[in-house]
UniProtKB/TrEMBL annotation, chains A, B:
InterPro entries noted in UniProt: Pyridox_Oxase-rel, Split_barrel_FMN-bd
Chain intervals with Basic and acidic residues compositional bias: 1-12
Identification of the protein by name: Flavin-nucleotide-binding protein
Superkingdom of source: Bacteria
Gene3D superfamilies: Electron Transport, Fmn-binding Protein, Chain A
Organism of derivation: Mastigocoleus testarum BC008
Amino acid sequence: MNTSKKQIDSEKLTPTQRSQVKRVPKRGNYERQVIYDILDEALICHVGFIVDNQPFVIPTAFGRVGDKIYIHGSPASRMLRSLSQGIEVCVTVTLLDGLVLARSAFHLSMNYRSVVVFGTAEIVKDPEEKLQALEAFTEQIISGRWGEVRSPNRAELQGTLVLSLPLNEASAKVRTGMPIDDEADYNLPVWAGVLPLKLVAGQAIADDRLLEGMVVPDYVEKYTRDRVNSFS
Amino acid sequence: MNTSKKQIDSEKLTPTQRSQVKRVPKRGNYERQVIYDILDEALICHVGFIVDNQPFVIPTAFGRVGDKIYIHGSPASRMLRSLSQGIEVCVTVTLLDGLVLARSAFHLSMNYRSVVVFGTAEIVKDPEEKLQALEAFTEQIISGRWGEVRSPNRAELQGTLVLSLPLNEASAKVRTGMPIDDEADYNLPVWAGVLPLKLVAGQAIADDRLLEGMVVPDYVEKYTRDRVNSFS
């Protein structure tokens, strides 16, 4: 998987009617590398789909291999049942990097990196691709885990529905930096700036039924998501 | 606003066809207080809506006042233009509390608290409600900020579209606790447990154009989102 993650061409996606960033277009980005980096840092995505003219937005874990993302779950889930019928889907990933504290309420903002992907999901039938997707799914959540845990057995593989979505129609949107205040407001006696945010891990809590002598693995002990905010 | 946040009845919402938690129903919760607590801790929501049979999922900030949530933005945004036409919307909020590290790949999971709200958004026309919504919006992001910054002026108020969504049809879904492994897997020599996660703030970065003598306010210095994970 690491190999395929490195086989990224620097290609730029072509914005479409629906993937083009319309609000504050200068924040839009269509570079594959930018899109992949945001996806790879995220723990969950929000999947949007339509059932009976009703939009649903469901949070779920995912994995990426090359130019596809994978989601998975029980074949009984409403989301997966619906998506496996080849309907249009919108998958959104959002990373929060900071609060942008301007001098006026109007210019309060956040620094973030988000990706929106459009397309049609497909059921993964090839057993090898399915296993690779499940590995990507595990490694996306916590790198190093797949090699240590029991791999899916035949019943689990058969009982898991895996869907793939191509990363052909997608855009990133990124805000960085300081607040942009109205010129007159710079004279206000108000503290302004950025408060950086990041998702951090606390101390691992062992399961009660742990075998004796098991120690917290290094990849758990040193777990971190962030590649942008480096504050400690 | 704090007053209205406290005026919560302990009423339970009635699950509907679309709001009922179908996968792992024991994790579903329809108590207003549970739903409100999750909403109030979140910095952003993901708004799902349909334009020309295409689902869109857009991340955005929001605020809550009593039994309504508010989103806002430019009247030119595709999302707000669409929603202001009274179409069906699905608003989802997700808080990640930890990685659930099971002994098999199949049982890898996350602890989370999520809320899904269904309904039809309405344009807020009453100027007082609009201002109250903008206060809620600011205070949701950083409590204490509204009283310190310049309030919206008439042009800003007119240039901001505020939409409200009633919290009548909603559900929470919560996973807590340790992994649930297959009985045989408890004998595997694999470390298992929970790795808690939370969103934390780093050190505030002052704007270059800050007036002399401005110090970081207490509510910025001591900023925290979490009400559940108390690790430091």
